[in-house]
Design a protein that fits this description.
By secondary structure, the protein is an alpha/beta fold. It has one domain (about 5-210): 3-Layer(aba) Sandwich (Rossmann fold), CATH 3.40.50.2020. It has helices at about 10-20, 30-45, 85-95, 140-150, 165-175, 205-210; strands at about 5-10, 50-60, 65-70, 75-80, 100, 100-105, 115-120, 130-135, 155-165, 180-185, 190, 195-200. The strands form 3 sheets. Strands 1, 4, 5, 6, 7, 8, 9 and 10 form an 8-stranded mixed sheet that branches. The chain has a two-stranded antiparallel sheet with strand order 2-3. Helix 1 (about 10-20) runs antiparallel to helix 2 and helix 2 packs across helix 3. The termini are far apart. The protein binds uracil.
Length: about 210
């Protein structure tokens, strides 16, 4: 994969917090808070290329030549349900962003294909740059399906942001959509027989929502 398409956020704060998230003794409350904090930090990286325009601002002392974001609109699209935790943190950083939702499960009975059960995207998504969020990029089945839906809706650009990726998922997403940049906090070893990322974090949705 071209390096510019895969961004592993090596910031010490992100790496430290990911270690806490990995710990099986971290409970749901702390897990949620950490995911939210990591997402904010990763969103900072994923929005680094937003264009700026110069403006003049009257400070209490003088006129300053300064910069503001030049009208690019963002949307976050979490993949239900684990992606919700990531979007919640990211939107704190970009409060004006809209949020769409895509519910997808990997249909084991149907050859591990993506099965969509819900999709609601912002009506003006075609004017927006979209960051799709999920906790894990495992097989890539859900990610590829989510990108397909968001592309069909006409979004201006698409990025994919997750906490933990593995080579299988990153390669699947990159092969299907080479134009989609992937932002992750760690690239783990790979998938086990149950298609969990190893060492990973276990079941991200269950840990986020305390359902197990
Ligand atoms: N989904 C999870 O929650 N965990 C994994 O390791 C892979 C997919």
């Amino acid at each position: 994969m071209e390096n510019n398409k895969l961004h592993i956020c090596d910031h010490p704060l992100v790496q430290h917090k990911i270690s806490l998230v990995r710990d099986k003794n971290t409970g749901s409350k702390e897990f949620r808070e950490l995911v939210s904090e990591i997402s904010m930090l990763m969103c900072y990286e994923a929005t680094r290329d937003l264009p700026l325009k110069s403006v003049q601002i009257q400070t209490p002392l003088a006129i300053a030549d300064s910069n503001v974001i030049s009208g690019r609109k963002l949307a976050f699209v979490p993949i239900l349900r684990a992606g919700l935790g990531m979007a919640e943190g990211a939107v704190k950083l970009v409060p004006a962003a809209k949020i769409g939702h895509i519910g997808i499960f990997r249909d084991k009975a149907n050859g591990n294909t993506a099965s969509e059960y819900y999709c609601k995207l912002p009506f003006d998504i075609a004017e927006r740059d979209v960051i799709i969020t999920d906790l894990m990029l495992a097989t890539g089945v859900s990610a590829v399906h989510a990108v397909k839906k968001v592309k069909e809706s006409g979004a201006r650009s698409i990025k994919f942001m997750c906490l933990i990726a593995c080579p299988e998922g990153a390669n699947a997403l990159h092969s299907a959509y080479p134009d989609v940049d992937i932002y992750c906090g760690a690239m783990d070893e790979g998938l086990n027989d149950d298609l969990y990322i190893v060492p990973g974090i276990g079941d991200g949705g269950d840990r986020l929502f305390g359902t197990k």
